[in-house]
Amino acid sequence: MSKNLKIIIGIVFLFISLVILLFSYYIFQLTPTSSKEDMVQIEIPKGASGSKVANILKENNLIRSELIFRVYIKIHNTNNINYGIYDLNEAMGVKQIVEIITDAKASGNTILFREGLNMWNIAKVISEYTNNTEEDVYALLDDEEYIDGLINDYWFITEDIKAKDIYYPLEGYLAPNTYQFADRNVSVEVIFESMLNQMGKVLTPYKDKLGNHTIHEVLTLASMIEAEGKTLEDRKNIAGVFYNRLAIGDSLGSDVTTYYAIKLDNYASPLKTIEINTYNPYNTRGPRMAGLLPVGPICSPSESSIVAAIEPIDNDYLFFVADKNGKIYFMKTYAEHNAKIKELKAKKLWCEF
């Protein structure tokens, strides 16, 4: 065998070995990242590119390689990835994940309503994941016959939701959760029915623990607690503060109610003096609100916040503040309250706008 032929055979062998190695690497990168079958919920936003989808999957440890994922969808000419909410797990390989996120039936049929959403954000979610518009949502909320029907059908819905100053009658009554629907043609009525049925399941175990409070009062307080605190202990202490202030006839002084009153989501945006001092039955920092709850809920509370409203920690605090990292501090006196704010500012922990 000539020297040249040996060289050629050697090159061919190396090439074949390299191809086999690369193919083996490619196949391995398509395998599941682990055997864990715990569901991980991801959201693919509308208009997300293949690179963006790969990044989302990688961040949730659902794929081994963003590059190989992009190569896979390129090879298979996958250009129909649907936006929406998906339940995936680490035991799924790339092939199974791609089949799920490109299934036309999966687009829009799973909707996540996060804890703490207010009605205008719920309307946005519905408009994004179904064929309904935000106007369809508001039109149904304005349908008095429909609202009266709900009052008759659900034990926890009362005439309280029809108070003249209520922005949206079902605010706070639509349970946050992940809901499964047949397709994007689901109606607002069906969506609301699913959310109200879930709220009924959440509230029923606490039906006999309400004491002197109405469901409307509990959901109103729970919605404030939801916006103010994150942990169950913080939420129960916050509930204790609110009950203490109500007991002495003081205003609740909660910024989140002022933001809701002016229909502003961005809590990082500073409130204006006129916004704080203008009467609004939602604005607990404004005049004529001493010893009063807002007229209704300001968002959809989690079960944790509902529990906090029903089972508060019996404390003697009257004030609380949060630093820029979300840690909450509780105080008994106004002097302590001011001192804590001064301390947080000195430590660069105060929320600066």
Task: Explain what the structure shows.
The chain has 353 residues and is mostly helical. The chain has four domains: 1-29; 31-106, 2-Layer Sandwich (Dna Ligase, domain 1); 113-204, no CATH class; 206-346, no CATH class. 46% of the residues lie in helices and 7% in strands. It contains 14 helices and six strands. The strands form three sheets. Strands 1-2 form a two-stranded antiparallel ribbon. A two-stranded antiparallel sheet has the order 3-4. A hairpin with a 5-residue loop joins strand 5 (319-322) and strand 6 (328-331). The chain starts with a helix and ends in a 7-residue tail after the last helix.
Keywords:
two-stranded antiparallel sheet, 14 helices, 353 residues, elongated, single chain, 4 domains, Dna Ligase, domain 1, mainly alpha
